[in-house]
Amino acid sequence: MTKGKDRYPVVTLVLYFGTDERWGQKSRSLYDVVGTPDKEIGRFVHNYRANIFEIAWLDDDTVAKFKSDFRIIADYFVQMRKNHEYVPSKENIRHVEEVLNLLAAVSGDRRFEISQNEAEERKVTKMEDWLTRALDKATTKGMEQGIEKGINRGMARNLVKCVDSLMQNEGYSKERACRVLNFSVSEYEAAKKTLADETVLA
Q1: First to last CA, the chain
Q2: What is the residue-level pLDDT of the chain in tens, covering all 202 positions?
Q3: Alpha carbons 171 and 148: distance in angstroms, whole number
Q4: Most buried of the four, 11, 70, 91, 153, by CB within 10 Å?
Q5: Do 143 and 189 contact (CB within 8 A), yes or no?
Q6: Could you tell me which residues come within 8 angstroms of residue 75 by beta carbon, excluding any fewer than 6 positions away?
Q7: Residue 100: what are its φ and ψ, rounded to 5°?
Q8: Residue 116 and residue 110: Cα distance in Å, rounded?
């Protein structure tokens, strides 16, 4: 580095998004992972420590202090830990596509994945409105195919796919998966019956 230039330290942060259990005190340093070296070589081995931030376990006051879109992300994981469901924020999102991409990647919540497809429009900036649009899109997709009676088959496929994904990938119960997606269990069962009937007729 050029002489006289300012130098700044580099800090590595680890953001832990788990909601079922805390990271705890384990594996927070190199020695925790590989064990403590003997005295002869120990003085040559730096015990690098990880700066772990358990996002889902932050208190409400700490979440409120975030000034960026990260407050919305942190609020999602805190709610999922506490209530196992998410009530969307009414706050504006400054970086819509980036927030939806991150939440879709680390949460497994299919609503964010559905919302990503419309993010480029950037006409809606509230999380509450984005998730409403995602659910509307999931439930009305098949209507364009001209199905007028019973449960729309396009909707049924999306509903069953989303619920099954949460159960298989996240270990959710059927009831919890339906609740997260704002559907009733009876609607899920009806959707499965629709797809089964479709298979029989085919």
Answers
A1: 70
A2: 556 678 888 888 889 998 888 887 778 888 888 887 777 787 788 888 888 999 999 999 999 999 898 998 999 999 999 988 888 777 888 887 788 888 888 887 766 766 555 555 545 567 666 666 655 554 444 334 433 444 456 677 888 888 888 888 888 888 888 888 878 888 888 888 878 876 544 4
A3: 34
A4: 153
A5: no
A6: 63, 89
A7: -65, -40
A8: 10
Which amino acid belongs to residue 200?
V
Q: Amino acid identity, residue 175?
A: E
